[in-house]
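Continuing from the previous page...

OK, I double-checked the sequence for Protein kinase domain-containing protein against my notes and this is the correct one:
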Amino acid sequence: MRGSTCRIDGSGEALVVRRVHVGERFEVLELEASGRRLALKIAAEHQQGMPPYRATRTVGTVSTIWSMISRAGILASSSWGALQLVDHGGRPGSDAREGTSQPGEVHETTTVTAEMLLTEEAQRIRDTEPHWNHQVLDLARCHLPDRAPALGLLMPWHPGVPLGTLPQRTQRRLLPRMMLSLWDALAAGLHGDLHDANVIVAPTEDRFALIDPGAMLLLPPPPSPGPTSDILTFVCSPTMYPLLPPYAITRPLAEGDTLHDHWHSFVRSLSWDDIAVPLDASGDSIHILPSRGRYLVQVPRTRGEPHPADLLAVGILYYRALTGAHPFFDARFTEPAWLSVMAWDSVISGDEPGRERVARPVVAPSERTLDDGRGSVLPEEEALALALLDLEVPSRDRLLSLSAAAAQALARADG
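Thanks. Re-ran it with the corrected sequence; updated structure tokens here:
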């Protein structure tokens, strides 16, 4: 493909410089057009199945609800005994109800889903463009040699490197300086898949761009005289969202809740099946999707603060920069806590791993051995990391105080 020509409907032709990334659902190409470097994200040529996480709400009557958050390939049970097998690994999915899946439909279904996810991602980038230093140049059908036309998301190519490729000591120095800008960027809109490859640091280290937000689709059920299901399909990195999924309904940070409180707030929201995605960039409301007897709720999002799941991801980034270790995953906790959490009316099951994990304190950074061998973690750095990981950052001003103290302490230590 390198050196070939890509034709983009409405935008002309560009030279393919290289294939940057190939994932299960999408691939990213570096292009060049009229001397300008561009990035193109398209559905992968060989789809590996549907995105790996789904939250399902099945309604049989007004009072009977079953919610489940599952990995692709896991059977999702409804209160009426119907089974849905989520497509996985390119194998045809099926449903206990006849006529829902036919041989040969898998590639078409996964491609359509990937394009819907890409469209949703494009809208979120547009909504947050000035805050994420990122933009959509075009969303159009792309024509590449030896493959079918596919929807592509055309974006600027950002000079710089992913945060995670920088030396650990450099990350440790930069992150406290980036904290206020990260707060503002994430307050502008849910990212949902924040990790060290999605933060591009400029060569001058004076700015960064947030790219590749986690995509989500919330689809209403088709008309049916029997049980109906709303399905939320979402993509995120479980290592960065180990306790709160990116669509979690929790109380505002400004109310001063800890991580323990946010976890239980999320679980309680499932008991009434309040699955909803806080994606509206204005912060006022999101879609209402009706189903038989119940409704997905409108979720107001407090202006001026990030979603708790995104802020927790920031804390994980900083903790790993300080220690090289993950703050939550260990021998006892190996899967995201929200995986397979279920609710039947007000009865919750599958939440035991999350309850156990939030009850245990995070190992203080100063108690871990640093990978870079350049001194111990400073008290101010530890205070910032632990506050982020317990979501005890109720305001931008509080984050300013903590991050400024950490940055100044490290500068003094470095002389």
